Amino acid sequence: MDLSAYRIVQEALSNAMRHAPGAAVEVKLYYGDAALVVEVRNDCPPGNRSAELRDDMPSEGGGHGIIGMRERATMLGGHLQAGPTEKGEFLVTAALPLDNEPAENRP
User: Fold this and answer.
1) Are the C-beta atoms of residues 23 and 42 closer than 8 Å to each other?
2) How far apart are CA 18 and CA 53, in angstroms?
3) Which residues contact 27 (CB under 8 A, 6 or more apart)?
4) Dist CA 46 CA 100 (whole Å)
5) Could you confirm whether domain 4-99 is CATH 3.60.21.10?
6) What pairs with residue 92 in β-bridges?
7) Measuring CA to CA, which residue among 55, 33, 36 is closest to residue 94?
8) What is the C-alpha separation between 1 and 46, in angstroms, rounded?
């Protein structure tokens, strides 16, 4: 796997800092034989707009936002979900295959 997984985590952390400043952020990595699953979850303080973010909303900063993270995950043959949880948190989950072959080269 190239640096794409790291960039997804970096962008998710940047988004949490930008849209929910001061919120607690939790990063979890699950590593198996077939895939790496990355979860980045942040609190949504009262009055913060993080929970209002939509999946298709572009980033306001120097990053590529959710759309860019999803494109990276898809390029690797994985997928990414992002959005508010029932508890008012914001959760980004990416599942990335570990075979290291770009999606366009897979059968």
Assistant:
1) yes
2) 12
3) 9, 13, 38, 39, 40
4) 41
5) no
6) 40, 82
7) 36
8) 38
pTM, full prediction: 0.76
User: What region does 81 belong to: left with phi over 0, alpha with psi -120 to 50, or beta?
Assistant: beta
pLDDT, tens digit (0-9, with 9 covering 90-100), for 1-53? 567 788 888 999 998 888 888 889 999 999 999 999 999 999 876 565 544 44
Residue 67: enclosing H or E segment and its boundaries?
helix 65-75
Q: How far is CA 37 from the centre of its chain?
A: 10
Q: For residue 96, which amino acid is it?
A: L
Cα–Cα dist 39/26, whole Å: 8
Helices first, then strands: H and E counts in the chain: 2, 4
Report the run of H or E that residue 92 belongs to, with start and end: strand 90-97
Using the CB atoms, write b or e for 72-89: b if 16+ within 10 Å: bbeebbbebebeeeeeeb
